[in-house]
Amino acid sequence: MTLKKTLTIAGSDTSGGAGIQADLKTFQEHGVYGMTALTTVVTMDPNNHWHHNVHPLSIDTLEAQLETVLSVGIDAMKTGMLGTVEIIELAAKKIDQFGLDKVVIDPVMVCKGEDEVLNPETTDAMREHLLQRATVVTPNLFEAGQLAQTGPIKTIDGMKEAAKKIHDLGAKNVIIKGGKQLEHDKALDLFYDGSEFTLLEEEKVETSYNHGAGCTFAAAITSNLANGQDVKEAVQNAKKFVTAAIKHGFKLNEYVGPVMHGAYNRFEK
């Protein structure tokens, strides 16, 4: 049996709910073979209200990881927490060098539970180097506002405006995650392929156990692309997958509750 191969360039979430841990669990659930290139290690301080601490790896270590994985060959890839301009530039360089054409950019700007943007200058670098190489980019409302330079987004019309601006920057497809934060009676995301808007709606899940949802969604899209689905189908199926994961999220400790990455195959499929 030959499995499709996927790559995630992302940070490690030591608590296991997001980052490369979420990506690998999601890849496994989709029957693809996942490989990693680690950018940072994120730890949480149990003695300081689960405050996140970010421990970057050297750029040389990241490049060595990428050379390892890309020498094998991959069918699709995603990015997560990249963290520095130098890392973003390296990711763009490798996408071009190896002719990668199924690229999911998850423009992570903050750690879940933290409000401070990790490195503000990376938004400009994403805009300049990554969006034009993205098969699909998956910002949440905050990230979409940053990339599109529209400011806060609170409506569907605002999402459409941002999606157009992000597409104009070079992304082939844009999916803006409104989720339950949007003022709407459904958990709503907006997909834009440059010519048509599609609203993806699911019932809102009233839970705070949603740690890792964004990573899981992007990893599901990546898996679906590797398995041969077109972009719109990959996004629609990923929406169902992550909705089930959120629905079956659980409490890890007093600070966080992750999604259940295997929920769709276990309970919904």
From TrEMBL:
Reactions mediated catalytically: pyridoxal + ATP = pyridoxal 5'-phosphate + ADP + H(+)
Protein name: pyridoxal kinase
GO cellular component: cytosol
Domain Pyridoxamine kinase/Phosphomethylpyrimidine kinase span(s) in chain numbering: 13-259
NCBIfam families, sorted: HMP-P_kinase, PRK12412.1, PRK12413.1, PRK12616.1
CDD domains, alphabetized: HMPP_kinase
Membership in a protein family: Belongs to the ThiD family.
Organism: Rossellomorea aquimaris
Entry-linked InterPro entries: HMP/HMP-P_kinase_dom, PM/HMP-P_kinase-1, Ribokinase-like
Pfam families: Phos_pyr_kin
GO molecular function, one term: hydroxymethylpyrimidine kinase activity
